[in-house]
Amino acid sequence: MTRDTTNPPVQRLRNRLSKTVLILALTAPFAVQAQEQLDETIIESAPVAPVVAPVPAPRPVQPAPAPEPEVIEPEIVVEPLIISDVNVLRTGTAILDLPRSVTVFSEQRIEDQGIQSIGEIVDYTPGVTTSQGEGHRDSIVFRGQPRSTADFFLDGVRDDVQYYRPLYNIERVEILRGPSALVFGRGGTGGILNRVSKRPRLGYDFTSFDTTVDTFGATLNQFDWNQTLGASSFGSGGKGGKQLLEDPIAGFRLNSFYETLSNHRDFFDGERIGVNPTLALMLTPETRLDLSYEYNNHDRFIDRGIPTGADGLPVQSLAGIVYGDPDQNFSAFESNVVRASLSHRFSDSWNGRLTAFYGNYSKTYQNFYPSAYDEATNQITIDGYIDNVVRENFVFSGDLVGEFETGFVEHKVLIGGEYIYTSSNQDRFNSFWDTTGADTEIFNANNFSLRNGAGINAAGNLATNSFSTDRADDTRVNIDTYSFFLQDEISLSEHLDLVLGARFDSFDIEVFNAVNGETRSRRDEEISPRLGLIIKPVENVSIYGSFSESFLPRSGEQFSDINGNNNALDPDTFCNLEAGVKWDIQPNLSFRTAIFQIEQSSPQVADGNPETLDIIDTETSGFEAELIGNVTDRWFISTGYTYLDAEQVNRIGATGLRPREFPEHTFSIWNQYALTERLGLALGVIFQDDSFADNGNSAIMPDYARVDAAAFYRLSDRYRLQVNIENLFDTDYFPNSHSAHEISVGAPINAAFSIRGSF
Length: 759
Prior knowledge:
By secondary structure, the protein is mainly beta. The chain contains five helices and 37 strands.
């Protein structure tokens, strides 16, 4: 891809009159979408997994010869803003009755807030924050725990590849906090994020689209087409389309998107393409087969931010400089994913599901980045590398969900198993400068410029880099994972529920290191228990306590590291104690709060005797509160607060240091208010306390508050205009980092303009 590096920096829209107009336009109490949407907003339960055949639409009533067909109102006209259960947990249990913290973003809420990335969802979710991800991948910090791609799932299937996940084919995003090994296995040390993909809606024909352009020049185009097959009688309904009155036997759905990237930073550009056709077949009234293929091709510039100065703060005078090469800082990602899901209802009490998943992925990411900064000389040290990954994942899983009684005790049982095979080949070459004979070179921080791997260094000499000289890593990895799990949700009485469960995982890894010709292997076998107690003094209130565990093998995020002592180390384990209260204040308004403690146990080789291990324990404690739902039929609110406390621990004991990217306080609020049937406004605020960018606590990311806003105008029943404004007051801020000298620079005030349509 050709990169245009001649564009001047984007203007920051500081015109005082324009800002005043915007502020006045948002002085209404709170904000939201149009009334028509809010009036139809409901709490919707996602299909209980395993998914069963939908109830066929009734045939038209014929009270007299040649009657007009009965018009059946569609079951879903608009997506709800709030959702009452969690798809990924498979049992369909209401959030009120789950002994854990959960937040769910519906498709409608994602659209209303103008959300285009996982990171933007995290901004408005309690208990989680974003990390930089080196500028080429999603990276989330759950309750301050280690970042890992093992925290991501798609339809409950592990999605552990490094990339920025698109949302064009997603109907909801589920964020669960606390270790979650019982259902998900390894990873999820502080929680997990699951994307639920769109499937064909049998009984409906509709087409929808949206087009967005922002003030940086980025564009996003999304398309969604749903077609029912095998039925011929129609009524009105769907997303502005038709509802079928005859029994559907199949359905097809096509989602696609095309995005061009641009932002406030020089050189930043890229494009992303995704296509996802899906087919649903009703094999019998009780059996449904879903088939899906998804192709993604993503290309983007990598920007890893700016350094910190002698005072530990980001050097704001350097905030306008990109320490990368417009030609050689890039990420190229391509994937092909095939999925099949067979669900069957055996009886009114038992459902089953089988899922098969195959994905092949290829990714290259190459970049320069700042690794040190000397404020006295104003010189910056530049490091870099190129990394290539080719991976295949195969997943086969099955589960049964059954409900039965033993005497006066009611049971909801989940039984399941999973097999995962992963083949992953990766290599890395460090940068190698001809002037230093090493992987780093020093440049003037203010006059920094690299093109095609060459630039004038601080000594005034031409320095040229090679990404093919210094091979740092070259591994071939094969992984086999077997898992079995059992859970029982026991209703002891109308006011008391008990959850018991356990999971067994066998994680077998073999790594061939091509650099030294060595092959190493390791098998970890872990049993992860879960216990929960729910007390319901009244129907709409639950008080719960829970204990859960998870583990993370020592093979590294991308499985390449069982060299040296890591070959002998047991996995890190994570134990979560949590207690909370949930209150459904009204049918579509919920308050949830929790206190928790997570203990990480990390085996380390002992200093005094390498044949023995020291166990290093680190505790994280915290508090979360969330209010979400419709206060009135016009006013939707979502607000969350988190408090976190932790201290790093080593072999000697507490160090007095906080973990990196671990803000003590975070807060967010999003308000939507319908002024009229056509016009709505929205206002949001996110606050993040200061935190450290490194475990040495030498680099600081200052606290910040950012104000966002939106306005909606419905042109007709089928078309809507929308504007989303980010950073309304043009605040300078630094949202996340990867290390002490890789601090991300937040965007100035910007706006995105959208038109959405359905027919």
